[in-house]
Every structure is written in structure tokens, then in C-alpha cells.
Amino acid sequence: VQLVQSGAELRNPGASVKVSCRVSGYPFTKYYIDWVRQAPGQGLEWMGRIDPEDGGTQFAQNFQGRVTFTADTSTSTVYVDLTNLRSEDTAMYYCTTPVSLWGQGTQVTVSS
């Protein structure tokens, strides 16, 4: 049972980034998946979640309008797409489930 995320990304300010999280070892639609991030020296910040069963999403207010969550049932993969990146978005991004499964993390660095 594991969540495997895509590799590190480097983006310029104003660009977009899409991070993936592939599920294996349990039925893809069994649990909703949260996305959280941790900036350097900061605590965990919840971004939102997606229910792979019906594609329903919830967003933290801080990310409204800048983030999209999608799920691809054919590949058991969820995605987070963050637009209009700024330096404050530099962080380690994680997918996680309610049963305390975590992806390995994806470093996103925003720098000109």
C-alpha cells in the first residue's frame, strides 16, 4: 500500500505546476485524498481534498481560485494543479489519506 508522488519541480513566479500522486495497494476510490504542504521552517498547511469516487473537492480558503484537484480512475492517480505561483509557494507537497498513508513528498521551488 503506497502513495507515490511525482518528482521535484522548479518554476518561475507566475507559472503553474502539476503534482501527481499514484495510489496502489487499495481500491482507489476507498478514501478521499488530502493535499498538504510544508514550507521551509513552517508547519503543515492543508490545501484541500478530493474524493476519487465522485471527483468532489474541498479547498482551503487560502487556495481558492488558484488550485485544482483532479482524479484519474484509469491510472489511480490524483493531481494538484497550482497556478500563478509565487515564492511563498516554495514547499514540500504531500498527498495523504485518512488512514495515515503519506506520499514521499514533492519539492516545489518557485524562483526566478
Written account of the structure:
- The chain has strands spanning 2-5, 9-11, 17-24, 33-38, 44-50, 57-59, 67-72, 77-82, 91-96, 106-110.
- The strands form two sheets. Strands 2-10-9-4-5-6 form a six-stranded mixed beta sheet, with no helix packed on it. Strands 1-3-8-7 form a four-stranded antiparallel beta sheet, with no helix packed on it.
- By secondary structure, it is mainly beta.
- A hairpin with a 6-residue loop joins strand 5 (44-50) and strand 6.
- The chain is built from no helices and ten strands.
- The protein is globular, with a radius of gyration of 13 Å.
- It is 0% helix and 48% strand.
* Ends distance: 38 Å
Oligomerization state: single chain
Helix-strand category: mainly beta
What's the mean pLDDT score? 96
- Please give the count of helices: 0
Tell the overall outline: globular
Taking the sheet with the most strands, its summary is: 6 strands, mixed
Task: Give the total of beta strands.
Answer: 10
Helix content class: under 10%
* Cα radius of gyration in angstroms: 13 Å
Give unreliable regions as ranges: none
**Spatial strand order of the main sheet:** 2-10-9-4-5-6
| Element-by-element helix/strand order | EEEEEEEEEE
- Report the portion of residues in β strands: over 45%
Concise overview:
By secondary structure, the chain is an all-beta fold. The protein is built from no helices and ten strands.
What are the key terms here?
112 residues, mainly beta, 4-stranded antiparallel β-sheet
Topology, element by element:
Elements: E1 2-5, E2 9-11, E3 17-24, E4 33-38, E5 44-50, E6 57-59, E7 67-72, E8 77-82, E9 91-96, E10 106-110
Parallel strand pairs: 2-10
Antiparallel strand pairs: 1-3, 3-8, 4-5, 4-9, 5-6, 7-8, 9-10
